[in-house]
Design a protein that fits this description.
Keywords: Coiled coil. Helices cover about 90% and strands about 0% of the residues. It contains 4 helices and no strands. It is rod-shaped and about 135 Å long.
């Protein structure tokens, strides 16, 4: 109403507008029932609680996503560590196989020359290589089991 009155200045004077504005404010304050204020206040609180729940749910979801990502990164790091360990064990296995081959070739040469000192050295090489091979095979099996368990965790 005030906007219309200002747009049509010939209807009301500025003094009339000020008086009308003051009366309107007085009327406005008197006619708002307390129930409306209480209802608005309770709706405001309900909306605030709903917003807080939504914020909490969002934070929980973000936290869960971060934990999941951290868990995945940890599993990837463990897998890489196991792969590196397996590669080291494989190199050691290759070296032990070479040591066994060296022992066998020395044994053949020592038997051919009938040199008992060289036979003992060859037997030591073969015995050490066999022990090393057994230990490495056990470690490789353990590594493979750990990799399988880790991959099952990743699939979950």
């Amino acid at each position: 109403m005030m906007i219309v009155a200002r747009e049509l200045p010939h209807l009301l004077s500025d003094d009339d507008l000020d008086q009308l504005s003051a009366e309107w404010r007085l009327y406005e304050n008197e006619t708002i029932p307390n129930e409306c204020v209480k209802d608005a206040h309770s709706r405001y609180h309900a909306d605030q609680e709903k917003m807080q729940r939504l914020i909490n749910e969002k934070e929980e979801a973000e936290s869960a996503a971060k934990l999941l990502k951290d868990r995945e990164l940890l599993l990837i790091e463990k897998e890489q560590k196991l792969i590196d360990e397996r590669n080291v064990l494989q190199r050691e296995l290759d070296n032990a196989s070479k040591m066994l081959d060296e022992g066998n070739s020395r044994l053949e040469a020592a038997v051919a020359t009938k040199n008992f000192g060289d036979i003992e050295v060859a037997q030591l090489l073969i015995g050490g290589a066999n022990k090393k091979l057994d230990a490495l095979k056990t470690q490789l099996n353990d590594n493979s089991e750990q990799m399988n368990q880790l991959r099952k965790k990743v699939k979950k």
